Amino acid sequence: MLNFSIGSLFFAVLLFITPIVLRIGKKYRTGLFLIINIAVFLLCLKSLPALLIGALWILVPYFMALLLQRAAEETAGVLPRILRNSFYLLMVAVFAYLMHYEWIPLFKILPYSNAVKLLGLSYFLFREIDFTMQYGYLKEVKVRITLVDYLNYILNFYTVMAGPILRYEEFVTDFYDETKPEMSGDMILHDFHRILFGYLKVYVISAILSVWAGYWFQRLSTGAGFFSLLAEFILFAFFNSFYIYFNFSGYCDVVAGGAHLSGMTLRENFDQPYFAVSLVEFWNRHHITLSEWIRDYIYSPVIKVLISGAFRKKIFAGQCVALFITFLIAGIWHGTNFNYVVYGLLQGLGIVISTLRTSHMKKKLGKKGFKEFQAKKWVRILENCATWAYISASFSFVGYDVCGVILRGFDV
Amino acid sequence: MMRLFDRLPVPVRLLWLSLELAIVLFAIFMGTKTTILYQGF
């Protein structure tokens, strides 16, 4: 299996070769891009069974979208809905199996090999769900749908590793947009700067922050005394939160710059998230494409089910429960061990508390009064610090075994 | 940072890019190791 990350030589070569190939062979751009994407996919496979699983994982949703649409058009009653829901349940079950969540007891019994893991597995899932869910709409608005475009959308090597999560419609519309201005020298310099600045964020800034976060985590793991541990945790959480930001936004800069050189526009994924004054605002500024995806494909269906059932007369309570479930699922998605479950619980809890507080303050001060209160400088600073502190504390469960440290602390 | 870069004259931008490239290559050749988070495995 080939090492495919933005730090690999292979990726660096692709980053500069692809724009040249796609721009010289403009007429065959779609086909050339597909060849590159399939080559990357094949080179990143760990084993032959992974090829079979990968092919099924990518192709089945394409044909299922056609089938589900036909079933919806030709069959009346609940059958199309049952078929659709069964398909998504199966996809989630296969995804969970391939991810091999450590804390699910069933996966300890089932046979499993790491060799079947695919590069970009969860990002494939996001795009497949978007494609299959939107298929009817895409046909209606006459968006170009072909197997080649679908494969380019799913396998797009710029976004296969860690997003940003594009929607099929925006990918195809952007890919075939002929109104884009010709590449100028200024644009090339801008993109080169974006790529190098991204690498600088990942390999210099986040690498240094990672060392410091690791150092304080090590001290935390072996330390003793409440105040000493508290200080070590704060320092660890501080460096870790900035490490996560610089690492991920740096990666996004590299792929966005590279894709733009090839004539593709990737959506911005960050908007200074640590300046947010609430958790809700934070998630609208951090990993924006994921936040929008979970809003559309987790929160919306969950709230629909809740307010048409148990929460029919308690819409606000339903919203809070839906938010909690959504962020718990999003947290669990982030990783396979139990730390990510805690991370999801903390995010869900934080979002619910933030929503309850906003609602309470609006009731107490009125909408206008609350707006004026929030506009005060000291309030903004305090809310920003509180948001950042909460996010940093919850982010400490990302990438580090904080649960293990806590359990060891209690001698469990 | 991006906006400031775009406003600079071309020679300064080229110098800036060279400096950035030098720092990045130095970091990589010095053996800086960092994993990309959120990797979709």
- Characterize the main sheet of chain A: none
Structural class of chain A: mainly alpha
> Strand-and-helix sequence of chain B, N→C?
HH
Largest interface: A-B, 41 and 25 residues
> If you average the pLDDT of chain A, what whole number results?
89
* CA-CA gap between termini of chain B: 32 Å
Radius of gyration of chain A: 23 Å
Radius of gyration of chain B: 14 Å
Structural class of chain B: mainly alpha
Strand residue content of chain B: under 5%
Total tally of structural domains of chain B: 1
Low-confidence stretches of chain A: none
Written account of the structure:
Chain A has 412 residues and is mainly α. Chain A has 3 domains: 9-175, no CATH class; 185-261; 273-409, no CATH class. Chain A is 74% helix and 0% strand. Chain A has 16 helices and no strands. In chain A, helix 10 (226-261) crosses helix 15 and helix 12 (288-307) packs across helix 13. With 41 residues, chain B is an all-alpha fold. Chain B has one domain (1-41). Classes of the chains: A mainly alpha (412), B mainly alpha (41). Chains A and B meet through helix 6, helix 9 and helix 10 of A and helix 1 and helix 2 of B.
Sum up the structure in keywords.
heterodimer; A: 412 residues; mainly alpha; 3 domains; 74% helix; 0% strand; globular; B: 41 residues; 2 helices; elongated
Task: Please summarize what this structure is.
Chain A is mainly α. In chain A, 74% of the residues lie in helices and 0% in strands. Chain A has three domains: 167 residues, no CATH class; 77 residues; 137 residues, no CATH class.
Task: Outline the secondary-structure elements.
The complex is a heterodimer of chains A (412) and B (41).
Chain A (H helix, E strand, L loop, with lengths): L8 H16 L4 H15 L4 H27 L4 H21 L5 H5 L11 H20 L6 H9 L12 H8 L9 H38 L3 H36 L17 H7 L2 H20 L7 H19 L4 H38 L1 H19 L6 H8 L3
Helix pairs in contact in A: 1-2, 2-7, 3-4, 3-6, 4-6, 6-7, 9-10, 10-15, 12-13, 13-14, 14-15
Chain B lengths: L1 H6 L2 H20 L12
